[in-house]
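Need the bound structure for FE2/S2 (inorganic) cluster, inputs here:
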Amino acid sequence: MKHETSVRILKELLDQLDENRNVDAGAQYRLPTSDYVCGDLAAQEWATLFQEYPQVIGLSGDLPENGSFFTIDDFGIPVLATRSNDGQFRAFLNACRHRGARVAQESKGKAGRFTCPFHSWTFANDGKLLAVPDADHFGPVDKACMGLVELPAAEKAGILFVHPKPDAKLDVEALLGLELLEELEDWTFADYIHVADLEIDMNLNWKLANDTFGETYHFPKLHKNTLGQLYYGNNLSYEEFGRNHRFVTASKLIDDLRELPEEEWTITPATFVLYYLFPNIQAVRNSNGLNMARIYPDPKNPGRSITRVSGYFTPEAMAAYEAEKAANPDNSNLLKAEDLYSRDASSSKICTPESQVEAFSSTVSAEDYVMGEHQQFTATSGLLKHSLFGHNEAPIHHFHSSFREALGRAPLERVS
Ligand code: FES
Ligand SMILES: [Fe+2]
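Answer from helper R.:
Posting the output first, comments after.
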């Protein structure tokens, strides 16, 4: 993020705190709670948002070297992502061209070639078909045409994008817009190092899971003993970039900036910066790196979703962690996950991989998504017809408006 953008956002947040204001969308909107339970809508969302639109599947650091690969099944097709021997990120259907078995079995690893377990057809990590055993028995196979089915893939700003349709066009610039793309490039995500994973499988619609990332109104209430210890809540700098947005909220360390010249202001640890990337990515940049959450529906059950969180360190955070481990084998200066919400410990100790993703266990999963399960149960009863979104919940308006617009549905209903 450019320094002038950081300063503009930090000033806006300081003003909000001083004037006891929050973001104001200019209106309230309401959403039928049936949107969280309707099977027909869920089927339409799955077929459209998750199969017709590009999907973010990770950061460059998930494929750290030539030969790295990972597999992913989360949006209804088997995907094999590789960094081939020429260093290029590629994505394929993880499906053998013989009869469709998976060629890569593990969730991640390193491999120059993949041998299908069924009859041992072998493919290179750039998708080429290398070998067909017993070819004289099998009959002729034109190897040049029988490589793995390639999916459109792009690595931009250190983010891995895949289109689920082999013949689709993947245009990341059009998807994000130039302004957001340049801002994401400024973070140098391409250098971040993957350090932790977390899966949250709970009984709430995937849009309810998204909604919890859409306001800070609840921080001092629901999160008073967790994230609310570190972040003020009730303040938000918010900007839209097409169907995507940026959400920045003040930590209690923002007050330290009041004594510093603006040239020395930095956006973290005075805030955290959250990017929402349409349709299902919530990526939180904190002082140590990035936590990226990918939120997926269960295509068979609108009342369930799976959130996959990947934690990444900046190279600086990784170097600090490794140096501390080497220097002090007693780990006394490392931040324990259970101390994350102690303001002293979190600002003075060295972040660990466990601490980096801890907020997704103790805040998101144990607090936000529990509310989401309550909301899901209520929505399923059919007796509460609408959810109401306030002036201070602008990002939630944006999620639902974007989903609805992409599906050709009527916009959210304005209340006041
Ligand atoms: S299905 Fe893969 S070798 Fe037969
Ligand atoms: Fe929350």
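Comments: The chain has a mean pLDDT of 97. The domain at 3-51+182-414 is CATH 3.90.380.10 (Naphthalene 1,2-dioxygenase Alpha Subunit; Chain A, domain 1).
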